[in-house]
Amino acid sequence: MSEVTNTKPDSSFGMRHVIIFLLFLSTVTSYATRVSMSLAIVAMTKPNKYDFPVFAWEQGIRDTILSSFFWGYIVLQIPSGLLAGRFGGKMLVLVSMVLTGIVNLFTPLLATKGDWIAVCACRILMGLSQGMLYPSIHGLIGQWSPLSERSRMGTIVYSGSQLGTIIEMVVAGWLSESRWGWPSVFYVAGVTCLVFSVLWFIFGASTPGTSRWISKEEKKFIELSAGATDINQSKKMPTPWKKIWTSLPFWAILLAHCGQSLGFWTLLTEMPSYMDKVLGVAIKDNGIYSALPYAAMYILSFVFSWSADFLLNRNMLSHGATRKIFNTISFWGPAIALLGLSYIPAGHVPLAVAMLTVTVGLNGAHYVGFLISHIDLSPNFASTLMGITNGCGNIFSIMAPLSVTLVVQDETSASEWRKVFFISIAFYFLSNLFFILFFSGNVQPWNEPKPTATIEDGVKHKEKEEKQQSSDKEASGEHKF
Q1: CA gyration radius, the chain
Q2: What is the dihedral of CA 32, 38, 40, 43, to 10 degrees?
Q3: Could you tell me if 93 and 133 are in contact, meaning their C-beta atoms sit under 8 angstroms apart?
Q4: Spatial distance between the Cα atoms of 479 and 86, rounded to a whole number of angstroms
Q5: What is the pLDDT along the chain (481 residues), one digit of tens a residue?
Q6: Are 133 and 96 in contact (CB under 8 A)?
Q7: pTM flag (> 0.85)
Q8: How far apart are CA 243 and CA 239, in angstroms?
Q9: Residue whose C-alpha is closest to residue 330's, from 292, 368, 303
Q10: Residue (of 44, 148, 162, 157) closest to 386 by Cα position
């Protein structure tokens, strides 16, 4: 009993911090590769002074290219979650990043050979490879993060997506106008993925028990406080599909993920086009302006995560109440700001950027809202839950650029972009309302496997053992004495 209660926070630096930092780098790199196309596609369709290929892609083709990533991305979400839950996430993360790097390196060549169809194929393949990443990461966080550090560690890992967005929006704009041109955007992204893969291969591990670098003390601390089952035991645990799909708290996470995906990815994929077509901002400045909101989100995400851990560790709020509060900040806050943004007249660049910064910045609270809640419900099946919600959520991510194609007929009209913003506002409001009503921060009963043997089976097994022992004694002559 003394071992179980000895789970006080260990603030010393350890292997769990190395793993979390590497997972942070994986989200930085993966999101940078996603965003690279959003900005590079603007440069690929405009004349340049260095004679790099220029593609005559209209808005419909550009939106198809941007959405094609998600066609592949949603396919492997649930299978990857199951595999990560049963066998660990190390190899899945490695394969994901290696493939992403290779695809990026070949994208410029294939674009010149096969035009937009080849680029779509590259994006689909990259989506397939990155479809393995987030379910694996979620399972790894569940295995490596003690309960007292979970909000912070989850935020550190997933905030990498915003830092990757910031870096790529600034660097891609600069590279696109440099003498190396738009192809260098993909080359830099590809090499970065491969460098990360080497580091992960050396230091990465699926669980504290499989790490060769961890100390015994830290391993014991994590295993006692994380609440996850060892991988070897997880292999024998059947996935409780019926209980998952009939769980209202799970549905609350699922709908929240869908609402956030549509709202956030509308901003992420279409912001460069909005800045270019409506506000008339140059490509290089576009990257800088577009990066400001994500810088705000990156910074605020740490404020929100430390606040959440403070409230939880001081027992000021329950897990459920904390998740609901910060999820509301990340959904209804951007909805209100987006409503204001939709009525800013075209040409007011500073005001528009300020409102975009508020809209995107408040999204940082979702890291300690619904996004980490899979682990609250079920540390053992967090990878599977993440695979389901991320897969469904990214169906709505596909809808984000396609909705712009359907709704916006005049790309320079602020009033038509306003319709796109209204769709995002509606999804933000309704999905969070369901989350408030039905989410629970408690570990669900189906997290732990139930013994399949009955009491009668146990009695029969014991009688069989006693009979075997009796026959052994008879064979050796012990029964005489």
Answers
A1: 25
A2: -150
A3: yes
A4: 47
A5: 333 334 454 556 789 999 999 999 999 999 888 877 777 777 787 777 777 888 888 877 887 888 788 888 888 888 888 888 778 889 999 999 999 999 999 999 998 898 889 989 999 999 999 989 988 998 898 888 887 788 788 889 988 888 888 888 778 878 887 888 888 889 999 999 999 999 999 999 988 888 988 888 888 888 777 655 555 555 567 888 999 999 999 999 999 999 999 888 787 767 667 767 776 665 455 566 767 888 888 899 889 988 988 888 888 988 899 999 999 999 999 899 888 877 877 667 788 788 888 888 898 899 889 988 998 898 888 888 988 998 898 888 778 777 777 888 887 777 788 888 888 899 999 999 999 999 988 888 888 766 444 444 444 444 444 554 444 444 434 333 2
A6: yes
A7: no
A8: 9
A9: 368
A10: 157
What's the angle, vertex CA 73, arms to CA 72 and CA 79, rounded to 5?
A: 100
CA dihedral 129, 133, 208, 156 (to 10 degrees): 140
* Other Cβ atoms within 10 Å of 458 Cβ, number: 11
Specify whether the CB–CB gap between 339 and 421 falls below 8 A: yes
Q: What tokens were used for 33?
A: 């590769």
Q: What is the 3-state secondary structure (H, E, C) of the chain?
A: CHHHHCCCCCCCCCHHHHHHHHHHHHHHHHHHHHHHHHHHHHHHCCCCCCCCCCCCCCHHHHHHHHHHHHHHHCCCHHHHHHHHHHHCCHHHHHHHHHHHHHHHHHHHHHHHHHHHHHHHHHHHHHHHHHCCHHHHHHHHHHHHCCHHHHHHHHHHHHHHHHHHHHHHHHHHHHHHHCCCCCHHHHHHHHHHHHHHHHHHHHHCCCCHHHCCCCCHHHHHHHHHHHCCCCHHHHCCCCCCHHHHHCCHHHHHHHHHHHHHHHHHHHHHHHHHHHHHHCCCCCHHHHHHHHHHHHHHHHHHHHHHHHHHHHHHHCCCCCHHHHHHHHHHHHHHHHHHHHHHHCCCCCCCHHHHHHHHHHHHHHHHHHHHCCCCHHHHHCCCCHHHHHHHHHHHHHHHHHHHHHHHHHHCCCCCCHHHHHHHHHHHHHHHHHHHHHHHHHCCCCCCHHHCCCCCCCHHHHHHHHHHHHHHHHHHHHHHCHHHC
Tokens 């609250």 belong to which residue? 376
Q: Measure Cα distances from 70 to 107, 163, 258, 390, 399 in Å.
A: 17, 21, 13, 11, 10
Task: Specify the amino acid at residue 380.
Answer: N
- Taking the alpha carbons at both ends of the chain, their separation in whole angstroms is 41
Tokens (6 digits) for 363: 């999204």
